[in-house]
Amino acid sequence: MIQKPKGTADIFLQEAEIWQYVEETARILLHDYQFSEIRTPMFESYELFSRGVGDTSDIVSKEMYDFYDKGDRHIALKPEGTAPVVRAYVENKLFGPEHPKPLKVYYISPMFRYERPQGGRMRQFHQLGVEVFGSVNPATDVETMALAWDILKELELSDLKLVINSLGKTEDRIRYREALIAYLEPFHDELSKDSQTRLHKNPLRVLDSKDKRDKEIVAQAPSILEFLSEDSRKHFEAVQEMLQALEIPFTINSNMVRGLDYYQDTIFEIMTSSAVFGAETTICGGGRYDGLVQEIGGPEVPGFGFGMGLERLILLIKDQQVDVPKLSELDVYVVGLGEVTNIESLKLVQNARQAGYSADRDFHDRKAKAQFKTATKNGAKVVLTIGEDEIKNKQVQFKVMSTGKEQTLSLAEIYADFDKVYKTQTADMTAFNEFFGKED
Ligand code: ATP
Ligand code: MG
């Protein structure tokens, strides 16, 4: 038996309905915020990520699925979405005068990271991400964070908190880096192995170490917020003021850094302490990356974006028992009794579908009772029954399930205008539902 690769998943039936619900809900909101979709390849040149994400990041140094293709090109399956979108932005000159400014794009895509699989951590996982190019206005930071917040709220998720921080500009970080190294060096031997290596390579990453002793040490470390330049400090204050104006609750954690090297100024995470993950877990993370477009060979254009992990989001949906509307709603079920009805059943479901109704039928020549059971189980609103007599008389039994009303109708009438027949026959049902406040 060949099995799926470790850290991957098959998604089907009810699980797939949750995915569709999440994606459709998000797409509607993304449209409200005037984002348009961008689709980039599943693989890119390795160099895009080593340059765009950073050689010292975990993603590039440990987690990348990379290989040489038959033409000896160094390729990587995309581990994140920002670098590819920036590459596409530069390559297609989306900064040109004919394109909207700022340019707001989103993607929903699989990502690949070689990690140790566990709850909410996969080797192939999915991110919903957005990128905004060309605005330094702190309102861009805030409306983009508000979008992430809104998506989670629209899905009726609770137990979420928004955490923000500022990483300042490169010069601020260079000064902070020195102060941080000076603070950490005396603790060198007490730090975890990972943090010891990071101490000089990428000391900011020591701040988000998950090791217990590391955490105690960094709790007293100097804060990056004290190293911000005037501009960055003002920007960060404006962000806070605007979040307050929108009444979006947030906390500041000056020890929060992000896994990717390209961030500047505002960064944020939306976290949950839901028990499904064991420890506090990030669902969505992002921030401002004002130097990245240039790094990838484009003009000096600022950016702001986030990536939201859909597996984690869906674990939350299940844990919090969010009501997921049923997508596979069924309007019409055709009950065909006897072999002779096979073709007519086929024609009847096709006729209903062509009139815009969802329709299904029995394929196993089962007894009437079994077929009605399926119709009820699938929530069919209307059942059309045909047997030998109906075939002979060119008729069909049309039953409205909610009222139990059944009528004999001619096949000719059904085929002439199914929409009209359906609406006339179900008029009572609609009135009944309206009276009792049910949706059609
Ligand atoms: P973590 O610290 O949990 O590894 P990260 O900092 O590597 O997260 P990002 O690169 O910021 O994560 O990706 C944004 C989001 O994508 C995460 O908050 C998470 O929801 C999701 N994500 C990242 N890696 C995985 C993975 N291996 N499996 C499932 N979801 C993931
Ligand atoms: Mg990670």
Q: What's the gist of this structure?
A:
The chain has 440 residues and is α+β, with helices and mostly antiparallel strands. The protein has 17 helices and 16 strands.
Task: Specify the CATH homologous superfamily of the largest domain.
Answer: Bira Bifunctional Protein, Domain 2
Bound molecules: adenosine-5'-triphosphate, magnesium ion
What does the oligomeric state look like here? single chain
CATH topology of the largest domain: BirA Bifunctional Protein, domain 2
- Strand percentage lies at 15-25%
If classified by CATH, what would the architecture of the largest domain be? 2-Layer Sandwich
Report the mean per-residue pLDDT as an integer: 95
What class, by secondary structure content?
alpha+beta
Ends apart, CA distance between termini: 46 Å
Please tell me about this protein's structure:
The radius of gyration is 28 Å and the shape is elongated. It has 440 residues and is of the alpha+beta class. The chain has an 8-stranded mixed beta sheet with strand order 1-5-6-11-10-9-7-8. The longest helix is centred in the N-terminal third of the chain and has 20 residues, at 13-32. The mean pLDDT is 95. It has helices at 13-32, 46-54, 58-61, 82-91, 138-154, 170-184, 193-201, 212-219, 230-245, 292-295, 310-319, 342-354, 368-377, 388-393, 411-416, 418-425, 427-435, and strands at residues 36-37, 43-45, 66-68, 74-77, 103-112, 124-133, 160-166, 251-252, 264-272, 281-288, 303-309, 332-336, 359-361, 382-386, 395-400, 406-410. It folds into 2 domains: 13-168 and 228-319, Bira Bifunctional Protein, Domain 2 (BirA Bifunctional Protein, domain 2), CATH 3.30.930.10; 332-430, 3-Layer(aba) Sandwich (Rossmann fold), CATH 3.40.50. The structure holds adenosine-5'-triphosphate and magnesium ion (MG). Adenosine-5'-triphosphate (ATP) binds at residues 80, 113, 115, 120-122, 125, 127, 259, 282-285, 307, 309, 311-312.
